[in-house]
Amino acid sequence: MAVKVRIPTPLRKLTGGADEVSVEGSTVAEVIEDLEKNYPGIRERICEEDGRLRRFVNLYVNDEDIRFKDNMNTALKDGDELSIVPAIAGGRS
Amino acid sequence: MDFTEEQIERYSRHIILPEVGGKGQARLLQSKVFVLGAGGLGSPALMYLAAAGVGTIGVADGDHVDLSNLQRQIIHNNNRIGVHKAVSARKTIEELNPDVNVVTYEERLTADNIREVIRDYDVVLDGSDNFPTRFLMNDAAFFEKKPLVSGSMFRFEGQLSVFKGHEDYPCYRCLYPEPPPKGLVPSCQEAGVLGALAGVIGVLQAVETIKEILGIGEGLAGNLLIFDSLKMSFRKVKVRKDPECALCGEKATIKELVAYEDAVCDLRTATK
Asked: Closest partner residue to A89 among B187, B228, B237, by Cβ?
Protein backbone atom coordinates (compact mmCIF):
# COMPACT_ATOMS: atom_id res chain seq x y z
CA MET A 1 0.00 0.00 0.00
CA ALA A 2 1.59 3.27 -1.10
CA VAL A 3 1.11 6.13 1.28
CA LYS A 4 2.22 9.71 0.81
CA VAL A 5 4.00 11.13 3.85
CA ARG A 6 4.34 14.86 4.33
CA ILE A 7 7.64 15.77 5.91
CA PRO A 8 7.76 18.94 8.03
CA THR A 9 10.58 21.46 7.59
CA PRO A 10 12.62 20.35 10.63
CA LEU A 11 12.84 16.74 9.37
CA ARG A 12 13.65 17.45 5.73
CA LYS A 13 17.36 17.13 6.44
CA LEU A 14 16.66 13.41 6.80
CA THR A 15 14.80 13.06 3.51
CA GLY A 16 17.36 14.89 1.42
CA GLY A 17 15.16 17.97 1.40
CA ALA A 18 12.04 16.18 0.14
CA ASP A 19 8.81 17.58 1.57
CA GLU A 20 6.83 14.57 0.48
CA VAL A 21 7.86 10.94 0.22
CA SER A 22 6.06 7.79 -0.78
CA VAL A 23 6.38 4.72 1.45
CA GLU A 24 4.68 1.39 1.99
CA GLY A 25 2.53 0.20 4.85
CA SER A 26 -1.03 -0.67 5.80
CA THR A 27 -0.87 0.85 9.29
CA VAL A 28 0.83 3.92 10.68
CA ALA A 29 3.37 1.71 12.49
CA GLU A 30 4.30 -0.03 9.24
CA VAL A 31 4.68 3.26 7.46
CA ILE A 32 7.05 4.50 10.18
CA GLU A 33 9.05 1.28 9.81
CA ASP A 34 9.36 1.76 6.07
CA LEU A 35 10.15 5.44 6.55
CA GLU A 36 12.99 4.51 8.92
CA LYS A 37 14.30 1.96 6.42
CA ASN A 38 14.48 4.58 3.69
CA TYR A 39 15.44 7.55 5.82
CA PRO A 40 17.41 6.28 8.81
CA GLY A 41 17.14 8.44 11.91
CA ILE A 42 13.63 9.71 11.23
CA ARG A 43 11.91 7.33 13.63
CA GLU A 44 13.63 8.64 16.72
CA ARG A 45 12.50 12.14 15.82
CA ILE A 46 8.89 10.97 15.81
CA CYS A 47 8.74 8.16 18.38
CA GLU A 48 9.94 7.49 21.89
CA GLU A 49 12.22 4.51 22.41
CA ASP A 50 9.23 2.32 23.30
CA GLY A 51 7.59 3.16 19.98
CA ARG A 52 4.97 5.57 21.29
CA LEU A 53 4.55 8.85 19.51
CA ARG A 54 6.50 11.71 21.05
CA ARG A 55 4.23 14.12 22.86
CA PHE A 56 5.21 17.15 20.83
CA VAL A 57 4.71 15.45 17.47
CA ASN A 58 1.34 14.65 15.93
CA LEU A 59 0.53 12.37 13.02
CA TYR A 60 -2.52 12.97 10.89
CA VAL A 61 -4.08 10.55 8.46
CA ASN A 62 -5.56 12.96 5.99
CA ASP A 63 -6.97 15.51 8.45
CA GLU A 64 -7.50 13.22 11.46
CA ASP A 65 -5.14 12.95 14.41
CA ILE A 66 -4.17 9.29 14.89
CA ARG A 67 -4.42 9.73 18.69
CA PHE A 68 -8.17 9.92 18.16
CA LYS A 69 -8.18 6.92 15.83
CA ASP A 70 -6.19 3.75 16.53
CA ASN A 71 -2.89 5.44 17.24
CA MET A 72 -0.02 3.51 15.65
CA ASN A 73 -2.44 0.79 14.60
CA THR A 74 -4.52 3.19 12.53
CA ALA A 75 -5.22 1.51 9.19
CA LEU A 76 -4.20 3.20 5.96
CA LYS A 77 -5.71 2.95 2.52
CA ASP A 78 -3.97 3.39 -0.80
CA GLY A 79 -3.68 7.09 -1.50
CA ASP A 80 -3.97 8.18 2.13
CA GLU A 81 -1.75 10.98 3.28
CA LEU A 82 0.15 10.86 6.52
CA SER A 83 1.31 14.23 7.85
CA ILE A 84 3.97 14.63 10.49
CA VAL A 85 3.35 17.84 12.41
CA PRO A 86 5.78 18.73 15.21
CA ALA A 87 5.17 21.59 17.60
CA ILE A 88 6.98 24.75 16.59
CA ALA A 89 7.53 27.68 18.90
CA GLY A 90 9.03 30.53 16.91
CA GLY A 91 7.23 33.82 16.67
CA ARG A 92 8.70 36.67 18.57
CA SER A 93 12.37 36.27 17.87
CA MET B 1 -21.54 54.48 21.18
CA ASP B 2 -21.40 57.58 19.01
CA PHE B 3 -18.72 57.80 16.35
CA THR B 4 -16.93 61.04 15.59
CA GLU B 5 -16.86 62.25 11.98
CA GLU B 6 -13.28 61.16 11.80
CA GLN B 7 -14.09 57.66 13.04
CA ILE B 8 -16.88 57.26 10.52
CA GLU B 9 -14.40 58.07 7.79
CA ARG B 10 -11.53 56.05 9.23
CA TYR B 11 -13.60 52.89 9.63
CA SER B 12 -15.89 53.39 6.63
CA ARG B 13 -14.63 50.29 4.80
CA HIS B 14 -15.49 48.24 7.85
CA ILE B 15 -18.80 49.92 8.54
CA ILE B 16 -20.12 49.26 5.03
CA LEU B 17 -19.52 45.53 5.47
CA PRO B 18 -22.86 44.10 6.61
CA GLU B 19 -21.00 41.58 8.80
CA VAL B 20 -19.30 44.41 10.68
CA GLY B 21 -21.43 47.53 10.41
CA GLY B 22 -21.53 50.32 12.97
CA LYS B 23 -22.34 47.82 15.67
CA GLY B 24 -19.32 45.65 14.93
CA GLN B 25 -17.03 48.64 14.66
CA ALA B 26 -18.28 49.89 18.03
CA ARG B 27 -17.59 46.47 19.43
CA LEU B 28 -14.02 46.57 18.11
CA LEU B 29 -13.50 50.00 19.65
CA GLN B 30 -14.68 48.67 23.00
CA SER B 31 -12.63 45.48 22.80
CA LYS B 32 -9.39 44.69 24.58
CA VAL B 33 -6.74 42.45 23.07
CA PHE B 34 -3.51 41.29 24.72
CA VAL B 35 -0.55 40.50 22.47
CA LEU B 36 2.37 38.52 23.84
CA GLY B 37 5.48 39.48 21.92
CA ALA B 38 6.07 42.50 19.68
CA GLY B 39 8.24 40.46 17.34
CA GLY B 40 7.78 38.66 14.04
CA LEU B 41 4.16 37.65 14.60
CA GLY B 42 3.21 40.41 17.01
CA SER B 43 4.33 43.21 14.66
CA PRO B 44 1.86 42.64 11.81
CA ALA B 45 -0.86 41.45 14.19
CA LEU B 46 -0.55 44.58 16.31
CA MET B 47 -0.61 46.87 13.30
CA TYR B 48 -3.77 45.39 11.82
CA LEU B 49 -5.51 45.24 15.18
CA ALA B 50 -4.63 48.88 15.72
CA ALA B 51 -5.76 49.86 12.24
CA ALA B 52 -9.03 48.00 12.83
CA GLY B 53 -9.68 50.16 15.87
CA VAL B 54 -9.33 47.63 18.66
CA GLY B 55 -9.85 50.01 21.57
CA THR B 56 -7.28 48.69 24.00
CA ILE B 57 -4.19 46.73 23.04
CA GLY B 58 -1.81 45.27 25.61
CA VAL B 59 1.72 44.67 24.34
CA ALA B 60 4.14 42.53 26.34
CA ASP B 61 7.78 42.19 25.39
CA GLY B 62 10.84 42.46 27.57
CA ASP B 63 13.32 42.82 24.75
CA HIS B 64 14.87 45.75 22.93
CA VAL B 65 14.84 46.35 19.18
CA ASP B 66 17.88 44.87 17.48
CA LEU B 67 19.04 45.42 13.90
CA SER B 68 18.57 41.70 13.16
CA ASN B 69 14.87 42.02 14.09
CA LEU B 70 14.04 44.43 11.26
CA GLN B 71 14.01 41.75 8.55
CA ARG B 72 10.51 40.83 9.82
CA GLN B 73 9.46 42.91 12.84
CA ILE B 74 7.86 45.67 10.83
CA ILE B 75 6.34 47.58 13.74
CA HIS B 76 9.89 48.73 14.59
CA ASN B 77 12.37 50.65 12.44
CA ASN B 78 15.97 51.80 12.19
CA ASN B 79 15.46 54.70 14.55
CA ARG B 80 14.17 52.42 17.28
CA ILE B 81 17.22 50.20 17.64
CA GLY B 82 17.91 49.79 21.34
CA VAL B 83 14.40 50.95 22.30
CA HIS B 84 12.13 48.67 24.33
CA LYS B 85 10.03 46.71 21.84
CA ALA B 86 6.81 47.37 23.73
CA VAL B 87 7.54 51.11 23.71
CA SER B 88 8.50 51.08 20.04
CA ALA B 89 5.28 49.18 19.23
CA ARG B 90 3.25 51.76 21.17
CA LYS B 91 4.81 54.61 19.17
CA THR B 92 3.95 52.99 15.84
CA ILE B 93 0.41 52.22 16.96
CA GLU B 94 -0.18 55.73 18.26
CA GLU B 95 0.93 57.19 14.94
CA LEU B 96 -1.26 54.74 13.06
CA ASN B 97 -4.45 55.19 15.06
CA PRO B 98 -4.92 57.56 18.00
CA ASP B 99 -8.18 55.76 18.92
CA VAL B 100 -6.17 52.91 20.40
CA ASN B 101 -5.20 52.90 24.05
CA VAL B 102 -1.91 50.98 24.28
CA VAL B 103 -0.84 49.35 27.52
CA THR B 104 2.78 48.21 27.62
CA TYR B 105 4.29 45.45 29.74
CA GLU B 106 8.05 45.67 29.76
CA GLU B 107 8.57 43.40 32.72
CA ARG B 108 8.88 39.63 32.66
CA LEU B 109 5.64 37.73 32.52
CA THR B 110 5.78 34.87 34.97
CA ALA B 111 3.47 32.31 36.49
CA ASP B 112 2.98 34.87 39.26
CA ASN B 113 1.67 37.74 37.18
CA ILE B 114 0.44 36.50 33.80
CA ARG B 115 -3.11 35.64 34.91
CA GLU B 116 -3.59 39.04 36.44
CA VAL B 117 -2.19 40.75 33.35
CA ILE B 118 -4.54 39.02 30.89
CA ARG B 119 -7.60 39.13 33.15
CA ASP B 120 -8.91 42.43 31.75
CA TYR B 121 -8.62 41.42 28.11
CA ASP B 122 -11.21 39.81 25.83
CA VAL B 123 -8.85 37.89 23.55
CA VAL B 124 -5.20 36.96 23.97
CA LEU B 125 -2.77 36.46 21.12
CA ASP B 126 0.41 34.41 21.39
CA GLY B 127 3.36 35.51 19.29
CA SER B 128 6.04 34.16 21.59
CA ASP B 129 9.11 32.24 20.56
CA ASN B 130 9.63 29.45 23.06
CA PHE B 131 7.74 26.52 24.52
CA PRO B 132 7.74 27.45 28.21
CA THR B 133 5.99 30.71 27.30
CA ARG B 134 3.50 28.99 25.00
CA PHE B 135 2.47 26.54 27.71
CA LEU B 136 2.32 29.28 30.32
CA MET B 137 0.16 31.41 28.03
CA ASN B 138 -2.13 28.48 27.21
CA ASP B 139 -2.66 27.54 30.82
CA ALA B 140 -3.21 31.15 31.89
CA ALA B 141 -5.73 31.68 29.07
CA PHE B 142 -7.57 28.52 30.12
CA PHE B 143 -7.76 29.52 33.79
CA GLU B 144 -8.86 33.04 32.87
CA LYS B 145 -11.33 31.73 30.25
CA LYS B 146 -9.88 33.74 27.36
CA PRO B 147 -9.79 32.66 23.72
CA LEU B 148 -6.16 32.21 22.69
CA VAL B 149 -5.15 32.97 19.12
CA SER B 150 -1.90 31.12 18.66
CA GLY B 151 0.62 31.41 15.83
CA SER B 152 4.08 30.00 15.37
CA MET B 153 6.62 29.64 12.60
CA PHE B 154 9.77 27.88 11.64
CA ARG B 155 11.89 28.57 8.56
CA PHE B 156 9.27 28.53 5.79
CA GLU B 157 6.39 26.98 7.69
CA GLY B 158 3.74 28.37 9.98
CA GLN B 159 1.01 27.02 12.27
CA LEU B 160 -2.11 28.77 13.45
CA SER B 161 -4.99 27.85 15.72
CA VAL B 162 -7.48 29.21 18.21
CA PHE B 163 -7.66 27.51 21.60
CA LYS B 164 -10.66 27.68 23.90
CA GLY B 165 -10.14 24.91 26.41
CA HIS B 166 -12.59 26.60 28.81
CA GLU B 167 -15.33 25.91 26.26
CA ASP B 168 -16.08 22.83 24.21
CA TYR B 169 -12.89 23.29 22.19
CA PRO B 170 -9.33 22.04 22.58
CA CYS B 171 -6.50 23.87 24.31
CA TYR B 172 -2.85 23.87 23.22
CA ARG B 173 -2.16 20.90 25.49
CA CYS B 174 -4.83 18.85 23.69
CA LEU B 175 -2.71 19.37 20.58
CA TYR B 176 0.72 19.06 22.21
CA PRO B 177 0.49 17.72 25.78
CA GLU B 178 3.99 18.71 26.84
CA PRO B 179 6.83 20.88 25.63
CA PRO B 180 9.69 19.08 23.89
CA PRO B 181 12.86 18.57 25.88
CA LYS B 182 15.44 21.27 25.35
CA GLY B 183 17.56 20.87 22.26
CA LEU B 184 15.22 18.59 20.33
CA VAL B 185 13.47 21.36 18.48
CA PRO B 186 15.61 24.19 17.15
CA SER B 187 14.52 27.77 17.70
CA CYS B 188 14.14 30.40 14.98
CA GLN B 189 17.32 31.96 16.19
CA GLU B 190 19.18 28.79 15.30
CA ALA B 191 17.24 27.92 12.18
CA GLY B 192 16.25 31.19 10.54
CA VAL B 193 12.82 32.23 9.34
CA LEU B 194 11.50 33.83 6.18
CA GLY B 195 10.59 37.38 7.22
CA ALA B 196 7.46 37.66 5.10
CA LEU B 197 6.17 34.39 6.58
CA ALA B 198 5.79 36.25 9.87
CA GLY B 199 3.51 38.66 8.02
CA VAL B 200 1.28 35.84 6.76
CA ILE B 201 0.87 34.14 10.12
CA GLY B 202 0.70 37.34 12.20
CA VAL B 203 -1.95 38.85 9.94
CA LEU B 204 -3.97 35.62 10.08
CA GLN B 205 -3.81 35.89 13.87
CA ALA B 206 -5.25 39.41 13.57
CA VAL B 207 -8.01 38.11 11.28
CA GLU B 208 -8.97 35.36 13.74
CA THR B 209 -8.89 37.84 16.64
CA ILE B 210 -11.18 40.27 14.85
CA LYS B 211 -13.60 37.45 13.91
CA GLU B 212 -13.57 36.33 17.53
CA ILE B 213 -14.46 39.83 18.73
CA LEU B 214 -17.18 40.29 16.11
CA GLY B 215 -18.51 36.74 16.44
CA ILE B 216 -18.57 36.26 12.66
CA GLY B 217 -17.63 33.40 10.37
CA GLU B 218 -16.09 30.12 11.36
CA GLY B 219 -13.22 30.39 13.77
CA LEU B 220 -10.20 28.11 13.67
CA ALA B 221 -10.96 26.58 17.07
CA GLY B 222 -10.83 22.80 16.64
CA ASN B 223 -8.51 23.06 13.66
CA LEU B 224 -4.83 23.63 13.05
CA LEU B 225 -3.86 25.54 9.94
CA ILE B 226 -0.48 24.60 8.50
CA PHE B 227 1.06 26.96 5.98
CA ASP B 228 3.98 25.91 3.81
CA SER B 229 5.29 29.00 2.04
CA LEU B 230 7.57 27.06 -0.31
CA LYS B 231 4.65 24.98 -1.58
CA MET B 232 2.24 27.85 -1.06
CA SER B 233 -0.12 25.41 0.54
CA PHE B 234 -2.57 25.88 3.36
CA ARG B 235 -3.81 22.71 5.04
CA LYS B 236 -6.24 22.30 7.89
CA VAL B 237 -6.18 19.32 10.22
CA LYS B 238 -8.60 18.61 13.05
CA VAL B 239 -7.68 19.24 16.64
CA ARG B 240 -9.89 17.31 19.04
CA LYS B 241 -10.55 18.19 22.60
CA ASP B 242 -8.63 15.53 24.48
CA PRO B 243 -10.76 14.04 27.27
CA GLU B 244 -7.48 13.09 28.95
CA CYS B 245 -5.95 16.54 28.66
CA ALA B 246 -4.10 17.34 31.89
CA LEU B 247 -5.40 20.91 31.75
CA CYS B 248 -8.91 20.94 30.26
CA GLY B 249 -9.82 17.23 30.35
CA GLU B 250 -12.29 15.50 32.62
CA LYS B 251 -9.64 14.43 35.11
CA ALA B 252 -7.41 17.43 34.84
CA THR B 253 -4.34 17.30 37.04
CA ILE B 254 -3.02 20.77 36.35
CA LYS B 255 -4.75 23.10 38.78
CA GLU B 256 -2.34 26.00 38.67
CA LEU B 257 0.28 27.45 36.37
CA VAL B 258 3.29 25.26 35.70
CA ALA B 259 6.68 26.88 35.14
CA TYR B 260 8.73 24.79 32.70
CA GLU B 261 12.48 24.48 32.58
CA ASP B 262 13.27 28.13 32.01
CA ALA B 263 11.24 28.57 35.23
CA VAL B 264 9.89 31.90 34.09
CA CYS B 265 8.88 33.21 30.76
CA ASP B 266 11.95 35.29 30.39
CA LEU B 267 11.22 37.43 27.41
CA ARG B 268 14.52 39.19 27.88
CA THR B 269 16.85 36.27 27.49
CA ALA B 270 14.72 34.19 25.16
CA THR B 271 16.28 35.67 22.06
CA LYS B 272 18.29 38.43 20.60
From this structure: B187
**pLDDT band at residue A9, thresholds of 50, 70 and 90?**
confident
Q: Which of A9, A54, A65 sits opposite B238 (nearest CB)?
A: A65
Question: How many structural domains compose chain B?
Answer: 1
From chain B, the residues in CB contact with A60 under 8 A are 237-238
Residue B183 placed within a domain: yes
Query: Which domains are delineated in chain A?
Result: 2-86 (3.10.20.30)
The CA-based diameter of chain B, rounded to the nearest angstrom, is 55
For A56, the closest of B38, B179, B188 (CB atoms) is: B179
Question: B193 is in which domain, residue-wise?
Answer: 31-238
Residue B259 belongs to some domain of the structure: no
B129 touches chain A (CB under 8 A): yes
Is B221 part of a structural domain of the chain?
yes
Report yes or no for ipTM above 0.90: no
* Residues of B with Cβ-Cβ distance to A58 under 8 angstroms: 175-176, 237
Amino acid A15: pLDDT:
95
- Residues of chain B under the 50 pLDDT cut: 263-272
Q: Is A17 on the interface with B (CB under 8 A)?
A: no
Number of alpha carbons in the 13 Å side-chain half-sphere of residue A36: 13
Query: Does residue B226 sit at the A interface (CB-CB below 8 Å)?
Result: yes
pTM given for the model: 0.92
**pLDDT per position as a tens digit, B122-154:** 999 999 988 999 999 999 999 999 999 999 999
SS (H, E, C) chain A: CEEEEECCHHHHHHHCCCCEEEEECCEHHHHHHHHHHHCCCHHHHHECCCCCECCCEEEEECCEEHHHCCHHHCECCCCCEEEEEECCCCCCC
Chain B partners of A19 at a C-beta cutoff of 8 Å? 228, 230-231
**Of the candidates A10, A55, A88, which has its C-beta nearest B152's C-beta?**
A88
